[in-house]
Queue: 4 jobs
Job 1
Amino acid sequence: MRGELTTLPSGFTVDSLSPAEGGAIVAECARVMDGYTTRSSGIAIGGLDPYYFTAQLAVYGPTATRAAAWELITRGIAERHALHERKTAAVEFLAEHHSAIPRLCREPLRLAAHDLTTASRSDASSLFAGFFGDPGPAFAWLYLELADPSPEWDSRLTDLLSGNEQERRTAIRVMTGRAGYDNALLALTRESNTEVRAEAVQALAFAAAHDGALAMRVCAPLLMLLEAEGEETAIRVGSGILRAESRNEGIEPVIAALRHHDSLHIRSISVDLA
């Protein structure tokens, strides 16, 4: 079988591929990525994103082909001659699934994310950004997930927190689940930007569901938010709690408030929190 990134069946998932299918598609992704680094490749638009698809195969694909997918996506992200905007979705996916990145790939990806975060965008990158979208804080996010605490780590996070909406939302994702950022998340729930505020509310609810001591501290503020704001805030609170792998008793008053919310929609979806 030969992988074809434009002819995959609709509704398929990467975890349903056979080893032969996975291997063929990894080979096809490698061919497409290699084409991006040659002068004659031109600009290919359409079809599936080979970087994002390879990252998904590395995490969720057939066990027999994951090593090849990890090698390819690590090399592809580090490649400096391909437009970095192409890689945005894959880099965000890797940052979100950073715990799944194998030990041998973590340092090369950390170095690549560090270099690509600080490098100036080339003329070609700026010219074609309209086709692929600015990578924004994606590389900074991956770097912060893979790097050890350091003054530079703190500086990078501070830069995100003082940046635009997308950068502040990324900073919240980095802080979620990390010790020592509870007050920062609580402060961000009062942000004037609605998207940043919603991201912070969800992060705080997630953290409180995990940590009983934190739940005792932030339960009242979360209840006040549920009382004062609309469905979007309630959905974000519920989503944060639902994402938590475990829950403590301290978050129960918030769950009870969702179950008795004025909105029928919120009451119906809070059934999943049982």
Note: The first helix runs from residue 19 to 36.
Job 2
Amino acid sequence: TETAWFPHASARLGQEYEDQFDTPDLEAGSATSEASVDISQQIPGGGNLDLSVKHSENDSSGVYKGTTRTALSVSQPLLRGAWHGSEPKYTVTLARLESREARLTQKKRILESVSRGRLSYWQWYEKQKRLSIAGRNKENAQRYLSTARQRYRIGEASVLDTLTASLEYLRALKSEMGAQAEAELARDRISEFLAVQTDACVLDTSESPRIDSLPSASQFLESVERFDPELRVFEIVAERLRLQQRFRKNRLLPELDVNASYSMRSRSGAGANVSEPESKALVSLVLSYSLPNRNERIDVRLSDIEQENNRIREADHRFQLRNQVNNLLRQWNLEMQTIQIADAAERVAGQKLEAAQRGYEVGTVDNLSLIEAQDDYTEASLESLQARIALKEFEVAFDEITGNVLSKFGVKW
């Protein structure tokens, strides 16, 4: 990635000693020392800048000689491997695109995770409301049983009426126990998602869920297309394919390189007070061309096909996205109408239950009619609850596809 632009450096240090055993002179022999440093740096445009410094010393029988060689060269391609066709530029740009795609994928997964948490919350809310309704039914059944027993004592109710009220109380008690188990399971799921203790999860069900209004279909679709990570991925893939195509086409061009070099050599040694450096400069223009093989031409053609396939997949995704948005909006409007009907039915069922309760207490309504009114009210309450939970689930889906999962709660993304 970015390390492709880092310089490459190497250093070498060596020493060699040779003794002359065939001569009695103790100072006979030679010692040679060498030290070199090479630095190579890729430059924008696909060129290379190379610097080499080498110093050698030789001490032979007391005679010292030293040589220092310095070379600086620049090579810049003009056609093949130049600018956007250079290997480092291609590698770094491709890595940046892959990094952007990875960030989009990560963002999508985070939003999906938060959305699952919100859905778990509303499932917990629904189970708690069902538990509240079951508790209300049990209290009513207990009150009906107490009334039936009192009426039986004074001779206004039969044994069958008392048994029926007892059976209704047991049924309400069983329903409450089942609702309690489901509520605890839902609370366990939300606590597991939040990674907190179960006791730390507290839910207030005293108020009904707030239903926010939605923007128009065109505004909603615009928000979806502006955020949708899949569309951003298609854009990144298109950019990556264009980059690959330019790079592959560049591989078909001839090589035309301009080279410039400068070298200098200086010597020093016994008897030389001032070294006399030798320098040489060279500029050359090199042209070479090899016929592209079949695989290179096929790669270029494949780039065109891959770009066309990506455009087709993007158009298909946009079409499916529009259908998804339209379906969600239609379902949202349908659930809004369902809520209005369910609320009206719940109000009517509540009024009928109150009337049946008063009639049962004065003996004008039998227990079967009271049970029927209670069941109707419970069913209407559950339908109203389910409609609101369905709207909250749609709201979670809306926030996820528009990217408002976190920003809706004041979290900047």
Note: The mean pLDDT is 84.
Job 3
Amino acid sequence: MLSSCAATQTSANLNPSHTHMNSKPNPSQFNGTWVGELLSLNGVQIDQEEIYAGTRKFKIEILDGRGLIYQWKSNKWQRFWQDKYTDYFLVYPNDTNAVVYQTKSGRDANCLWVETWTFNITKTDTHTANAYFNRTVNNRECKIEDDGIWNKSGSLILKRID
């Protein structure tokens, strides 16, 4: 059901001949390796310096709708979730924007956990993009005292390096 605001739009506004409505997702326009460092940080129930120590830098490798995320740790790039999963992050593009995301859940020795990462990206030119990063964690049924549910986010500028 359309909201009242959407329902009041004229048929001209909903005309499929509008160019933006005809644009087809083109994942290849985001292909490449993008690197950036978080510029601002926000979080609830976390010590930002501890959480982000050595993880402010991100590298995103995108190829045709799939992505791999790396973090700069211990003076080298380390793939995120490589120890637990071989899955790619998904890339959903629309014109100059894309969402790169992954959501996982599992059980380890201490908790049942659910975790989601997203990067909301908008290209400013062929080699630069603004991005907003969000990570949401829900640790449940923990055997030890845990941070439980938390969220952190930040903005970054990505540069395509290849």
Note: The longest strand covers residues 112-125.
Job 4
Amino acid sequence: MNLNKNEHGQCPLAWGDRVDHPKFGFGRVVSEPIAMSGPIKDPSSPSGYRTGPKGWRMDIEWEDQDRAPSSMGSKFLTLVERPDAKGGLFWEHEYGKLLKQVQVHRAVTDGAMQRAFRDRSEERVDVAKLRVALAQEKAGIKALLDFLDADEAGNHH
């Protein structure tokens, strides 16, 4: 079960980090961490358990060429290196995330605009929802432009 990231706080690992696993050796995080949840003991709960944060899951590409990439929980990994000078692949990944967010928001906005005016179906969108969709798209575009401005200024080395 996935939870929102706010309940988990900040993940200790990020895309591009070099990590160590006691059995599998060194590897690199190649996906965005996903917050996971599950049952945790809670004496105040009638059942004695409640759903709560259970760490983070991410894909790891191992340095051992004979080992296939795998999904791994953060509690089994130790951060070895988080490069200060991030390489081109890192920045391409970050830009790709921003671009994908804008594309998703744009698709939502386009759909909302089509269903906002005199749509008699159950899928009709009211103007307030359209404004929210437009604001989210605008925020995504601003983040994308800020990223591009920072890149032009030479901040992505």
Note: Helices lie at 5-8, 88-114, 127-152.
